[in-house]
Amino acid sequence: MPSLQPQQSQPSAPAAPAEPAPTARSAARRRQRSTRLTVAVALLAVATLLVGWALVAGIGWLTSVVAVAALVLGAAATRITHTEVMQARRDAARDRAEQAAEYAALTAERTAENVAFAIDMRRKIADREEVIDGLEVALSKAQRLAADQTRKLNAEARRADVAEREVAESARLLDSSEDRAAEAIVLVAELEAELDVLRSELVSWKAAAAARRAESA
User: Fold this and answer.
1) Is the pTM of the predicted complex or chain greater than 0.85?
2) pLDDT in tens, 40-70
3) Per-residue exposure over 29-62, b if at least 16 CB sit within 10 Å of its own CB, e if not
């Protein structure tokens, strides 16, 4: 009799997607920020040198001109620094928004993979349960057949005891019944073994599905 046990297939867990790598645009922004801050520091350094030179020279009108120039340079440096700070804030906000969008997409992808995995596990479990139901029906029929053959064997044995005139015929019927009973018992043993294997496999699959749901939760 061919085996009713289906081919085993191992569930495949969804692969974790890779984390997003830093973009070249962030590096370019950092280089621009460094250049602007360097220019601002250079302007302040020039203003400081001019003021020091004017104070050492001690010329009144030159001191006034240098003071105005230092004020202009300081204002320019302040403006550059303020612009850089505002740009850094905008860049940080943009980076946070992009990162949030990337993680939202990553979460959606993982959720979809978990849902697909759960659906696949439920389908496989349903298939195994259907096979087990079929084997249980076959086992029940085999058990009834074994019981019938056993009853027939007992009946033939009793008839053999009381019907001495038909000893030869009763012996032939008895041997045939014993063979059928032995075949039925072997069939029952095979079906019980297959049923035990499938039940064990179903328990392990249900445990794997429960563990997967616990991890995703």
Assistant:
1) no
2) 777 777 777 777 776 677 666 666 676 677 6
3) beeeeeebeeebeebbeebeebbeebeeeeeeee
